[in-house]
Design a protein that fits this description.
Structural class: mainly alpha
Largest sheet: none
Low-confidence stretches: 149-164
Mean pLDDT: 84
CATH class: Mainly Alpha
Radius of gyration: 16 Å
Order of helices and strands: HHHHHHHH
Number of helices: 8
Oligomer: single chain
C-alpha cells in the first residue's frame, strides 16, 4: 500500500493559494474557478507590462503556487499587445476572463485581485509596480478601487496610490 504523499511546504502552498482564491471568490460573489481566472488575468496583465527586473521582483514576492500562476506561459522577452488606455486594459482583462464561469465587470476583477495583493504584499513593492506600469494601467489600478484603504508611493515619485 502506498503511503499518502505529505509535504508541509506543498500543503502550506496549497492552503495559501486556496485562501487567496476563496477571498477573491467571496469578493466577486462567485466560485473559485472564476477567482482563478480573475487572479490569472490581473497577474498576467501586470507581469506583461512591467520591465523585466520589476516583473521578476513582483514574482518573487508572491506565494509559491500564486507565483506559478503568475509565471504560467510567460515569455519574458515577448512584446505584450499594445494597450495604452484604461479601456484597452479592461478589454484585455475581459478577454482573459473568457473561460470564467461567470461574466464579470473587469473593474470588479481588478478590485478583487488588487485587494489580495494589497493584503499580502509589502506596500513598497506594490508602489514600485505602480510606477513601472504604463500610465493607462496605472490609472486603472489607482481608480478601480476608489474608497479603499491605500498606502503611499515612494516619496520622490508622488504619483498617488496603488489599489486605493
Amino acid at each position: 500500500m502506498l503511503e499518502p504523499l505529505r509535504n508541509d511546504t506543498i500543503d502550506h502552498a496549497a492552503d495559501n493559494a486556496e485562501l487567496w482564491l476563496r477571498a477573491i471568490a467571496a469578493q466577486l460573489d462567485d466560485d473559485v474557478r472564476t477567482a482563478y481566472h480573475a487572479l490569472r488575468a490581473v497577474l498576467h496583465i501586470l507581469r506583461d507590462r512591467l520591465p523585466l527586473p520589476d516583473a521578476v521582483g513582483l514574482g518573487a514576492q508572491l506565494p509559491l503556487l500564486i507565483r506559478g500562476i503568475y509565471y504560467e506561459g510567460w515569455s519574458p522577452h515577448a512584446t505584450p499587445p499594445r494597450a495604452r488606455h484604461v479601456e484597452e486594459f479592461l478589454g484585455v482583462i475581459e478577454r482573459s476572463m473568457a473561460d470564467a464561469t461567470t461574466k464579470l465587470a473587469p473593474h470588479q476583477v481588478v478590485a478583487a485581485v488588487c485587494d489580495q495583493l494589497r493584503a499580502h504584499l509589502p506596500a513598497t513593492d506594490l508602489a514600485r509596480v505602480l510606477v513601472a506600469v504604463p500610465p493607462g494601467l496605472r490609472l486603472l489600478l489607482t481608480t478601480t478601487i476608489a474608497g479603499r484603504a491605500s498606502f503611499p508611493l515612494a516619496p520622490p515619485l508622488g504619483l498617488g496610490t496603488i489599489c486605493t
